[in-house]
Amino acid sequence: MIQRILAAALLPLATGAVLAAGEGEPNEGGASRVLYPGEDRLANVRQLTFGGENAEAYFSSDGDELIFQSTRGDRQCDAIYRMDADGSNVRQVSSGEGATTCSFIAPDDKAIIYASTHLGGPECPPKPDMSQGYVWPLYASYDIFRADPDGSNRVRLTDTPGYDAEGVYSPQGDKIVFTSVRSGDLELYLMNPDGTGVEQLTDVPGYDGGAFFSRDGEWIVWRASRPEGEALADYKALLAEGLVRPSKLEIFIMNLEDREPIQLTDNGAANFGPYWHPDGEHVIFVSNMDDPKGRDFDLYLIDVETRELERVTHFPGFDGFPMFSYDGSKLVFASNRNNAVRGETNVFIADWVW
User: Fold this and answer.
1) Does residue 3 lie within any of the structural domains?
2) Which residues form the signal peptide (predicted)?
3) Which of 58, 164, 262, 315 has a CA 20 to 30 Å removed from the CA of 201?
């Protein structure tokens, strides 16, 4: 969401962050600008979508396809699409009813999952009231669904009251990690691919979400808030209204054997969208840590042992939702760069340079 989002997905939690945080300057004069000085980790950058709000693009295990969410045309909220990794063969795989977010392709490419509000009605749910500041909606009608690769034969996997979303498969395909409010707080859970065997992973007050597995399936990485005092009271009051304020999020990791959270970042910024590099030694994530105004989001690489940090992108706007291909050779991300119109968010792919 934010996420999954974070943030987006993150129309609930992430795409909202994209548009509000980094509108970027529209591209003028038709000159293409997809790479910026200092982005030495990226090569052969290609823009895959052109116009609308496109985010949370995630690779199939063979790297040949991407699944993503997009608000385009006359739609007022996200639908789920698939496309080839070169941007061709775009097709919608959700029904077009309700809002959708946080899609993912099973490792064997025999299924997809995504969250949808369609059981709550075919219309797009209402936008949140921003009179309380910048907040993300946690639509209670979100549930997680599995479908065939083309979107047919949709099956509901979650059926508890309240928000269920931000689901992704493990690389082995044996588990799905997701976020749910079923305990009264936003926590991480594991379940089997058929929705059975649900296990709670986190239990600290605050938002836990946007989790992804390491390549070996032994670890997860996610974003979390840990509010205290007045901030905790504000968090609980907003949660009761189906809202969350994403201004302070840190990155955590957890080994699924001992299940002890380990905090990677501690900068007080809005950190989200983490993803493991296949080497298991690095995590890429999104942060506004270098912008005092909090509007410029860039990608950062962190060594999970040394905590050594490296800034990856330098576009003065929004870069987010990174994912490495399973072999680590490619990086896909969403960005406001090279906009034709202010506020557009598009999907980009690049070769990763070590």
Assistant:
1) no
2) 1-20
3) 58
